[in-house]
Amino acid sequence: MSRYLPTAQLDDSTTSSANAGMESSELQRIINWLIDGARSSRDSAEMISDACEQLVAAGLPLWRFGVFIRTLHPEIYGRNFIWRQGEEVEIGTVDFEILATPEFARSPLRIVFEEGLEVRGRMDDPDSKRFPFLDDMRAEGVTDYIATPMRFLDGSIHAISWTTRHPGGFSEDDIATIRSIVAPLARVSEIVTLRRTAVTLLDTYVGNRAGERILGGQIRRGHNDTMQAAIWLSDLRGFTALSDRLPAETVVDILNRYFDCQVTAIRGHGGEVLKFMGDGLLAVFPIDEYVGDASHVCSRVLEAAREARASVEALGHPVGDVVERFRFGVALHVGNILYGNIGGGNRLDFTCIGPAINLAARLEKIAGRLGRTVVVSEGFAKVCQHDWRNLGEFPIAGFSKAQRVYGLAEETPVVMA
Length: 417
Description:
The chain folds into 2 domains: 3-205, Beta-Lactamase (2-Layer Sandwich), CATH 3.30.450; 222-408, Alpha-Beta Plaits (2-Layer Sandwich), CATH 3.30.70.1230. Helix content is 40%, strand content 29%. The chain is built from 13 helices and 17 strands. The longest helix has 35 residues, at 172-206. The chain is elongated, with a radius of gyration of 28 Å. The termini are far apart. It holds the Pfam family Guanylate_cyc. Residues 1-22 are annotated as: Disordered. It comes from Bradyrhizobium guangzhouense. This is Adenylate/guanylate cyclase domain-containing protein.
């Protein structure tokens, strides 16, 4: 009979009942292996595969196993790992749109996530047909299905699903074994998930390379490195006037879509976004000094700038009967930067500073004055072979010498009103 059951906790009675269907020593060995972190497995997928194979070898009639972890991610609702006998573990993700689908509304996992209850559906029970997912399982020869909540220490509820093709489904001893495995599996899953969450958050807020350094221990003020990089500094033209005449919610939406135009191009060509500053964006493209790939890197930066320009030009926002178009400017430079922790007390920022960054910021302002989308420094123009147009020398605040600036020969300047 399909039913909802309170979450079972691992205790002496549960383990004792499980021992009737599986040798006590073998079950305890698997539990100890999980509690110890499943160290013999190289990654999450292998850990799941190893755990399932050990359980099957010990007598649990498991055919399909799924782990569903809700994530702290701006775009992804959760990740799933699916194991089937004789197959590699499938890894997938689902986005937040799934929450509004009829499939999720009628899924056993919705009950697990929202109510923290255990759900069981025997395929020979007509009541199980209210879960469309179980129709798919029935077609694959499944006889019994159990979804168990997996609670993390922070109170969040995740889920594990267990299915069998064994005639008659899971026995009570099998169910006791399953319940006894949930708690240790939750502990090792939480450790893996926490580390992945830390990586995701760092990648989201400071960028991939910076995140790796922070997670690797560079968390003290003074932990800095010098790096050669191509520098990208851009902003949206007319942003102040735009903010003054449009609702704040509309401005935020425009900014997000505007940044999408750049971030996709930057990351697609090997760059890393370090900072959003209002409508401004700072990104770097590291150059390997040992490989000597400065020319190749700068060529990719220029290609990213062209892609971003085309995307921004195609971006529009309806205002009354017309569609408002947007323009942006980007300055490209190449040089050495100081890359690391800067701040006060225990509040730090992982960013980059140096004369090269300052020059890029000044060049971006010159791009606006000249009505240009893309301007580059003399150093960038020398490294990146292209049909450049010499735009002249300009005095730069903070620099003793005037700096020569170049633009794309094919670009027609547009003077902003």
